[in-house]
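Translate structure to sequence.
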């Protein structure tokens, strides 16, 4: 069985050297998407980065849209996940060859030169098709607004979770009356939970999977716990680094302790270990289909609030309008209609583990029956996100620069306090650097919503 996150992890690790798939940088998905329907009045070209289970769910949603809207033909194409996707999208937008609709990670939107490489959404058109600001989490919507304009339409929130084996925790008396993991509110409580779980787990397995040598996961975990401590990155004008090295050291020491106390086997395959009986693993919510497919007796909760405040790392897939010099007319309206439809009909998407961004979906009976999705939906209300600057976002420069530093501390090649100082130096350098998309620093980029 494929390790949870395996495809993502491999793509992340090799993103810099991947060639964009196909002679034009993409490969079209199946289900008849290649052919222009003869009865269609409007054609919408749509680029996305979804493969695997996400890709299958997106195909199902697009096919449902085609059936409900026969006058609109959707030409959907899938590009390589990660930096190859963003490179291709930027080149297409700059060369006036952009698709009518695209997908991006919300954290990357600020660095994508909104107004130059991205066009803003028409709020009236979205409202016409039933999508309004009040249907979204306020913090999520605010992240999509730059210089007063909406440049991204959130589809989901995907978060890092604490997956736990109920069968193991039951033996350790770590489940509450509701059948879920007992609450944890401090680092001492967390390590006490790990100690009790280790005492009853299978021999030869680690107690928890932490992706200790993966720069992206380690960075995501750091962002979560640094946010729990109330840590800040920059001032509101993005002209000064406010990174708190004392708080950062606390987080790095916490992550390192999992290794030094013997709860982690560095380099061990986290997903397989969990499937084979390891009590815990910290993974993205995209692992839900894998663990459910293995028919495990498990649950999933947001990362434990060990520093007293609820916060778990979150990113978001969002629809964007790549810049077109002649954007408008029926094709542009078709793009708005398609994006609104998918956002409003995201129950299929939730099956892949993602939390739908369209909040009315969360109150439906069908969503409330989804397990373990209904256990961690509250993560939407305490998202730990990267700062809103051009060098942040999924697989962005910030993660590439600081992720390896977190790994060095967790794995023991650098002391936590020294690693924290190194992180601050990187942040200082990044804040003064210019976005290669438009030659502006974070302070000059109009990033404040």
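Result:
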């Amino acid at each position: 069985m494929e390790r949870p996150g395996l495809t993502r992890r491999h793509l992340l690790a090799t993103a810099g050297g991947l060639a964009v798939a196909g002679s034009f940088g993409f490969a079209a998905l199946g289900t008849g998407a290649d052919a222009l329907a003869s009865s269609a009045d409007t054609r919408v070209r749509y680029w996305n980065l979804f493969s695997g289970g996400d890709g299958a769910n997106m195909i199902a949603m697009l096919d449902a849209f085609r059936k409900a809207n026969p006058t609109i033909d959707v030409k959907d194409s899938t590009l390589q996940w990660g930096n190859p996707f963003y490179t291709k999208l930027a080149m297409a937008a700059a060369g006036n060859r952009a698709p009518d609709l695209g997908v991006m990670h919300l954290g990357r939107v600020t660095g994508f030169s909104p107004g130059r490489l991205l066009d803003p959404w028409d709020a009236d058109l979205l409202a016409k098709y039933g999508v309004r600001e009040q249907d979204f989490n306020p913090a999520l919507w605010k992240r999509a607004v730059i210089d007063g304009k909406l440049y991204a339409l959130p589809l989901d929130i995907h978060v890092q979770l604490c997956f736990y084996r109920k069968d193991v925790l039951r033996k350790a008396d770590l489940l509450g009356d509701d059948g879920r993991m007992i609450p944890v509110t401090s680092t001492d409580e967390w390590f006490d939970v790990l100690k009790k779980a280790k005492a009853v787990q299978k021999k030869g397995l680690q107690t928890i999977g932490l992706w200790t040598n993966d720069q992206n996961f380690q960075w995501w975990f750091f962002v979560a716990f640094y946010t729990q401590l109330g840590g800040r990155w920059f001032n509101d004008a993005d002209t000064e680094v406010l990174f708190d090295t004392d708080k950062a050291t606390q987080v790095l020491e916490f992550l390192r302790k999992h290794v030094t106390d013997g709860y982690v086997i560095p380099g061990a395959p986290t997903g397989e270990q969990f499937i084979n009986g390891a009590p815990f693993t910290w993974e993205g919510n995209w692992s839900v289909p894998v663990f459910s497919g293995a028919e495990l007796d498990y649950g999933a909760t947001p990362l434990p609030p060990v520093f007293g405040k609820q916060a778990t790392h979150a990113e978001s897939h969002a629809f964007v309008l790549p810049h077109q010099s002649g954007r408008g007319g029926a094709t542009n309206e078709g793009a708005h209609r398609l994006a609104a439809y998918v956002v409003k009909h995201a129950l299929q998407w939730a099956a892949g583990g993602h939390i739908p961004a369209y909040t009315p979906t969360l109150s439906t009976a069908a969503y409330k029956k989804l397990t373990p999705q209904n256990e961690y939906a509250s993560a939407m209300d305490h998202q730990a996100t990267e700062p809103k600057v051009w060098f942040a976002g999924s697989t962005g420069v910030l993660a590439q620069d600081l992720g390896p530093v977190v790994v060095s501390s967790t794995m023991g090649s650098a002391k936590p306090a020294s690693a924290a100082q190194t992180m601050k130096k990187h942040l200082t350098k990044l804040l003064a650097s210019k976005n290669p998309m438009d030659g502006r620093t974070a302070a000059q980029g109009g990033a404040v919503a």
